[in-house]
Amino acid sequence: LDFAKVEKAFKKIIDRHETLRTSFETKEDSIIQRIHKVEDLSFRVEEIVVDGEDEIDRRIGEFVEAFDLTKAPLLRVGIIKLEEERNILLFDMHHIISDGVSMSILTNEFVQAYEGKKDFDALSIQYKDYSVWQAQKKQSEEFMRQEEYWLNEFSGEIPVLNLPTDYPRGKVKSSEGSSISFTLDSDMTSRLRAAAQETGTTMYMMLLSNLNILLSKYSGQEDIVVGSPIAGRNHRDIESIIGMFVNTLAIRSAVKDEMTFKEYLELIKQKTLSAYDNQDYQFED
């Protein structure tokens, strides 16, 4: 691995994407984006030395640090050199300038820039253009319509999910938690896909329906809200931009005993499609 080429490739990508040259600061109670020139940034690829493979996980953990939002780039790159032809490339990037799709864009562009296969076409718009568009949209009739949809969905009392947990719910809300991963076997996956095809739904709708029913059975509640992220890239011009476009859709539905599963699945299909149609209205609002 050529360290100089790695650094050059990243500088090329940082130059291409204004988000990677953006810092954030407060001005008169408003948060503003400040875009810097690539030559004004002190960016370098850090070489991380490990004393044996037992140290790798610890060094990766240490590599992730808090960012100062007033200092660009909000991207950190490091390399752990293990052998002559075996290296680990580390990225640490603040969520304010990136999402899951951004990581894919960054990875693909890095490979192309490192191999020097082609020069990138100039981006037709940058993230600041999207920010302006988003701010302007708040004055539009379309935005008012979307606001009305979500206020309608969450009129009345908002349910709190009371699951029978091992410990009482904390008085102070915390976002601490952990993840549990599991894999559905190929037979179950095939059956779910067949059921989705038969009902004109998607795997997401199928799994969301099942999750809602499970939560309803555990809690004894009918009114269930599940939030899930949506990419928010519903225009071709922003498909290839590194940035934070993700929104959360809080999908609310009533799980009623008298409904068949197919009837409930159809309800979730309609709720989900309506949420997609109104995805520009931010969850924070």
Spatial shape:
globular
What do we call the CATH homologous superfamily of the largest domain? Nonribosomal peptide synthetase, condensation domain
Total separate domains = 2
Query: What about the largest sheet?
Result: 3 strands, mixed
Helix content: 25-40%
Reading off the top of the CATH hierarchy, the class of the largest domain is best stated as Alpha Beta
DSSP E strands, number: 7
Structural class: alpha+beta
CATH second-level architecture of the largest domain: 2-Layer Sandwich
Sequence of strands across the biggest β-sheet? 3-4-5
- Name the helix and strand elements from N-terminus to C-terminus, one letter apiece: HEEEHEEHHHHHEEH
CATH topology of the largest domain: Chloramphenicol Acetyltransferase
Beta-strand share of residues: 15-25%
Separate helix tally: 8
Low-confidence stretches: none
Terminus-to-terminus distance: 46 Å
